[in-house]
Amino acid sequence: MAKQKKTPRPKAQTPKGFRDYFGIEVVERAAMLDAIARVYHHYGFDALDSSAVETVEALGKFLPDVDRPNAGVFAWQEDEGDKPGDWLALRYDLTAPLARVYAQHKDDLPTPYRRYAMGPVWRNEKPGPGRFRQFYQCDADTVGAPSVAADAEICAMLADCLETVGIARGDYVVRVNNRKVLNGVLEVMGLDDQGQRDAVLRTIDKFDKVGSDGVRQLLGKGRLDASGAYIDGVGLSDAQAEPVIAFLTSKGAGVAETLANLRAAVGGSAIGAEGVDELEEIAALVAAQGYGTERIDIDPSVVRGLGYYTGPVFEAELTFDILDEKGAKRQFGSVAGGGRYDDLVKRFTGQSVPATGISIGVDRLLAALRAKGQAQVAAPGPVVVTVMDRARMADYQAMVAELRQAGIRAEVYLGNPKNFGNQLKYADKRGSPVAIIEGADEQAAGVVQIKDLVLGAQIAASATLEEWKERPSQFEVPRADMIAKVREILDAHS
Amino acid sequence: MAKQKKTPRPKAQTPKGFRDYFGIEVVERAAMLDAIARVYHHYGFDALDSSAVETVEALGKFLPDVDRPNAGVFAWQEDEGDKPGDWLALRYDLTAPLARVYAQHKDDLPTPYRRYAMGPVWRNEKPGPGRFRQFYQCDADTVGAPSVAADAEICAMLADCLETVGIARGDYVVRVNNRKVLNGVLEVMGLDDQGQRDAVLRTIDKFDKVGSDGVRQLLGKGRLDASGAYIDGVGLSDAQAEPVIAFLTSKGAGVAETLANLRAAVGGSAIGAEGVDELEEIAALVAAQGYGTERIDIDPSVVRGLGYYTGPVFEAELTFDILDEKGAKRQFGSVAGGGRYDDLVKRFTGQSVPATGISIGVDRLLAALRAKGQAQVAAPGPVVVTVMDRARMADYQAMVAELRQAGIRAEVYLGNPKNFGNQLKYADKRGSPVAIIEGADEQAAGVVQIKDLVLGAQIAASATLEEWKERPSQFEVPRADMIAKVREILDAHS
């Protein structure tokens, strides 16, 4: 008999690029998703929970983020024994599944179909610091509404969502741009070659990083980037490149000035004029609903997603400063984006279906609230009933049941009760506000000891001996008064 | 140049065995998960959201349901270019990830660690009617508590969860059995051969289907099953098989009688006696917390999971009758199960870590509430503001904003407004309680028309002409009274 090889122990590790979320992190995210869902619902949007797994065929390859050209999906082939199975994949966003759902169920769905969806999505890409391969999205889209009134509604709803989760008015702005205006600019430039148009689109996408001078260089001969590498340019002349720069920098002092600048930039292009008209209409619609430009603004410098969307494009940016890893001040930046994409459903049905929507990056939004110190403070842990006599567990569990029935979060210590110090250490690790002690003496006297752990910690940290004596943090009360005393302590700390 | 082949359109279909959930289904499930999470939290359990993707190595193959021996996982290999990548898989339950999480993070977690988790899990198995490859679980487990007080707590919490989501007391029972008692029985039988023990375990698992006579035949020579096929037996004599039958049928009129029957069945086996002691302790602990046997009962006929768990086993069954597809009455059956499994973490660390928990099948529980007619009735749709004049969209959106600010779910019609009938059909499909109409005449007169669609439908369905005249379902009110009138109608129908 061959010597048996011992199976090595499996490594207890998440796969690379994945992580676990604990306690308050989970509760905070659930609360935020719930708050956003309420706003979406209030606007008449209905919930949709599509399957996390799609056929690769249905999913297609429509990743909206052009800065992640190599972003992939997690995919595998079905094992059907005799014949080759379908390729399946985890959804990489909530928009591609919406297109599939709408094409599959359109006869049963109202038109227009307003839907919201929230849940994890997966990207098979190189993980980086703070960049995970599973993250949450929270989307709302309107399918089948050609009017830009739908876009205006989305922008208003996005502003409401941000305020609902705790971003103060003035700390965010929803910026709106329009792909059609850019198309008009390209038309004016006489760029008919699709390759050149795509090259211009890719270049514009770098506007955030390199600014207008950088874009000018990249549209022309090229540019030496920060790493010292030379990036080849698109090869346009300065004159040819000028309309693009005019477009990107056309934001004026007010909406009217911005629109006038845009009209100048698109010259006689019909599609360009249509784009400017749409922006004008959106501005008028949100203004009529009371949203000023400090909340929703027309801003042609928003370029993220311009290559992907077909009409209006939205981006919500947080405008307050945070300190980055190096201690430098910078704006928090984008937490949500979206726009109009009229061709997604067409892949399935052959018919163009107008659609517009937004996706809120919930994890980034939570990070923003934490950076502002506005995230929920850690909720207190449960009241811990300690175990002084293992044989009396039934009594302790009955005490806990009594506390819970009184609406108080509570638990009995379930580790080895031998070392009482470990029980208090446990209560500390759990963030417990109160510990309850009932040993043989207390039981005989019909009392319980109630330790105020919050006060105890305060006293231990700072009190003088005098204060210590004057402010006891442990109370002996009749067993019948346990609930009342615990509630008194909890109320004092809340 | 070769003739270009047209790419065929992708099929708009979920993969086989997957489905989408719409509107009220999503909201109902979210509400149920939320209600259960509150109970778990109230018992001192903390939230955990582990990644949906695990390494196949970490996941292992520990599917608890012995009736699904071929259940598989969705797995794929990481593409790391030069070297073979890890195999990754979607989690098939929430327990295997918990073992990995605990082994990975145990230094940072309290001991005992009480955690709850909820979310989708995936099974790569043949889909069937009503059986999907993605479904929701909602688990609570205590890791690191050896005492059966932890098991008793789980049972009490499970009963509380069921009542919280709307299962009335008397309509469910949490049944408790113990794997150690069965081990004692096997010891008494003198079955030392692991193969034979496994065969007995597999046979016991069929008790639900074939009853005690069927089990007796299967433990002996074999049995002709319903399809006419002959199933080979384990080959035990009737005398040898008798302790198993005694165990399975040992439920008496009360807990004391059941325990006495079990003591007789395990004879002099030490492990068997330990198992019966544990059941006795659990019964005493839940009784002390006020849970009678109509809520939590000792029942040795619970066999599901006995092969997987190492100590106490729990199952929550709904005891009311429903009508099956054929119109026959049957009990709804199991909606939650769990037990003690002391070896899961050992795979990673080499040390045995006691753990116990439950998993609630949320989708089955929702189906049960629907079967009882207790599920949430469909919430009303939004108030729909119709569009009489496309050029006045800003006014209509402002009306909608006003309604929303008053706390009323509302939307403007965003389809093609040309055909007014389509707008009312849309409102009907949306389940809207109220439609608002403001054409040129109304605007000039400073009024709006408010249609009570619920009353309108009632009248249309049943009213005589007289009643029709007497009970108008459309009201003309001054524009300033719009909110008040809408609220009045909504209140009348709620």
UniProtKB/TrEMBL annotation, chains A, B:
Its EC number is 6.1.1.21. InterPro entries: aa-tRNA-synth_II (IPR006195), aa-tRNA-synth_II/BPL/LPL (IPR045864), Anticodon-bd (IPR004154), Anticodon-bd_dom_sf (IPR036621), His-tRNA-ligase (IPR015807), HisRS-like_core (IPR041715), HisRS/HisZ (IPR004516), HisRS_anticodon (IPR033656). This is Histidine--tRNA ligase. Homodimer. Its main location: cytoplasm. HAMAP family: His_tRNA_synth. Keywords: Aminoacyl-tRNA synthetase, ATP-binding, Cytoplasm, Ligase, Nucleotide-binding, Protein biosynthesis. Pfam families: HGTP_anticodon, tRNA-synt_His. Residues 29-380 form the Aminoacyl-transfer RNA synthetases class-II family profile domain. GO terms for cellular component: cytoplasm. It comes from the Bacteria. GO terms for biological process: histidyl-tRNA aminoacylation. It is an enzyme of class 6 (ligase). It is found in: Cytoplasm. SUPFAM superfamilies: Class II aaRS ABD-related (SSF52954), Class II aaRS and biotin synthetases (SSF55681). It catalyses: tRNA(His) + L-histidine + ATP = L-histidyl-tRNA(His) + AMP + diphosphate + H(+). L-histidine binds at residues 93-95, 123, 137, 141, 304, 308-309. NCBIfam families: hisS. One of its GO terms (molecular function) is ATP binding. Belongs to the class-II aminoacyl-tRNA synthetase family.
